[in-house]
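LIM zinc-binding domain-containing protein, pasting as requested.
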Amino acid sequence: MAYPSRSCDRCSNERRSSFMKWLCTFLKGQKPGEPNRRRPRVTAGEEEDTLWQPPVRPKNDPPRHDNEELDRAIAESLAEDAKPPKERNHKGDSNDEDLARAIQDSLNMNPYTPYNPYAPSQAQAQAQPRGHRVCGRCKHEIGHGHYLSCMGIYWHPQCFRCCSCGHPIRETEFTLLGTDPYHKLCYKELHHPKCDVCLQFIPTNRSGLIEYRAHPFWGQKYCPLHEQDRTPRCCSCEKMEPRNTKYMSLGDGRSLCMECLGSAVMDTGECQPLYHSIRDYYEGMNMKLDQQIPMLLVERQALNEAMEGESKGPHHMPETRGLCLSEEQTVTSILRRPRIGGNRLLDMRTQPQKLTRRCEVTAILVLYGLPRLLTGSILAHELMHGWLRLKGYRNLNAEVEEGICQVMSYLWLESEILPASSRHAPSSSYASSSSSSYPPTSSKKGGISHTEKKLGEFFMHQIANDTSTAYGDGFRTAYAAVNKYGLRQTLNHIRLTGGFPV
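Structure tokens follow.
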């Protein structure tokens, strides 16, 4: 009786194996071109000879012996499952594991995978085993266990850290930049602009956009409201005063940053070497001034009073920093450099001086407390006014006179901060009028510092980008004429016609 039993068990295992293969094929999908198969209705608990019913086929449908065999295998397998646990055959455990694995793989298949540009390509995904995942941080494969995912990117839980501070991200909200996760606050610290004045994040406007102002040269960013809240600016470089930095107060409403204060010219005696070096620069350009013109460093109030008493030259910049006098006046000049006490200047000594007219030019006045290069550029500008008057240039309009004076100021700055190979060299100018042939007038040994050079570039930028008609448009027209015809021919044309050559 044992032999028939073994034969029956083997037949049962073969039938179950066929069923497993069919069920795995069914769950994984139907092959192209394969006809659909109907699964018979089976009721558990009935006798084995009544469980299976042959499927009803159309009259014209040819017999399918392979389908009948599979249907019989399904029916017999279900009948086996309907038996009591003691009568079941347990030799098909490995086949049951295959069935469970096939069902699990089928459930994990997702035909609607979202597009992720950082995920592996389709060819790479096909080459990788099913369930293959790579950590977006350590780039190692993620095996069994917990993992985190977002937008098709995976991480080990211990690898899900902020790329800025390095601490784990435990919040439900975070920012993903490419494949790099960040805490929201860390991302804001890195990418949200801060105001260089109040040192806070620049707020958004009513439209939800970040709106700020930026200096065209220094790139300093600040909130728009600081333009109305009387935040001090440096009177030289025009940078706004940060909250954690105090500028030097000059006592006349002006403030000076520490960088500009480092080279500031504070009294008349200190300015004399710079003044004489610029006169030598003019002489090197074959534009020597035969008369000795007094030069005084004055306070803001004294300069404004002298400007009101001047009958000639009504055209001035909104912030007057220099003046070429042609009338007799009494001007108060700064006699001794003031002492610095905290954030203020103390013990300033002044002296009134009566200016007598001996020629067309009485004196040159310059505002005190400005950096050396800015003071020099003002002197070069005002000295050109004096040269034009002493040489008989009469009744020039503001655009022509201020334009050519700004050109001389620009050329002097260029000679101070640029190397000889890159300086402006006007064609057909005076015999030795090329500024590249004349040494810089810096009184410091070893040239100027990087900070002072950057200031000089800013002053040149101010001249070149001035928006006023007389100083801005006049400079650009004069500079183009000097570049094209040279300084000598441009000045001769101004003398004859009162305008620039075209």
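Note for the archive: The CA atoms of residues 400 and 499 lie 6 Å apart.
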